[in-house]
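A quick aside before the break. I want you to see a complete sequence-to-structure record at least once, exactly as it would be stored in a machine-readable document. Don't worry about memorizing anything.
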Amino acid sequence: MTNVYVFVAQAGELEAMACLLSASIRARASCELIAAVPMPASVWGELSQRTLERLDDLDVQLAPIENPVSIDYPIANKIAALAVPVSADVERVTFIDSDILCMAPPVAMDGDIVCVPPRGQLLSRDEWHALYRDFGLDPPAPRAFIDANGQTRTTDAPYVNSGMVSVRREIARAFAGQWAAVSRALLDRGFTDPNHRYHIDQISIPIAAALDGYDLRFDTPRWNFPSWY
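That is the input. The structure line, written in C-alpha cells, reads:
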C-alpha cells in the first residue's frame, strides 16, 4: 500500500520535531514524506535554513498550507496538512503530529478514516449525544476498541486523538473540508471549558466523519501510544 505521511513543520520548536519525526520514519520505512508549512510567514514565521537543509537531506517535500479555521486556533494547521495535494497512485494520506516518533515499521491500515482513542474521555456520554443532535445526527452507536493497557472496551462516546489521522486518498480533501467546517462551528459554539476549546480538533473528527457518511475506525495504540496523558 502506498502511504504518504504528512506533518506540520512550523517555525520554532515544531521544526526540530519535524526533523526528528522525518528521520525516525526514514529509518524504518520507504515512503513519501510531506512537511506542511503554514503560511503566511508573517503570521507563522519562516523555517530556518538548517531545517530546510535537513528536510531536504531526508527527502521531505514541502507543501504550503493555510489554516482553514482561524489563526487564533493554530492546531487547525493539521487539518490543512491532511488536504495537501498528493499523487493519484497514493492509497492513504496519514497525518502525524510533529511531536511523535516512529518506533517501528508502519503497519497497514484499512478503512475510510483511522484514528486512535485517547486514554481518557473529554465529554460525557450525554454531551456527545447532544452534540450529535445539534448537527442533525443520530447518537453514535457503541463500538469496541483496545485501550493503552491492551484491554477491550466499548464506548458510544467516540472521542479520538488527532495526533494520527489516516484517510483514504480519495476522501482526504473532502474530509479535511468537513473537519474544518465542524471545527469552526464548534469554535462559534463557545465552549466555556478551555480544555474543550483546545481539543475542538479532536471533538470534531467523529462528527465530521458521521456527517459525510465515512467509516471511522479505531486502531490500537501502536499507531499513537498515549505516553503523555
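Two observations worth writing down. The chain is about 35% helix and 20% strand. The helical segments are 13-26, 41-44, 49-57, 77-82, 125-134, 169-189, 194-198, 200-212. We'll return to this after the break.
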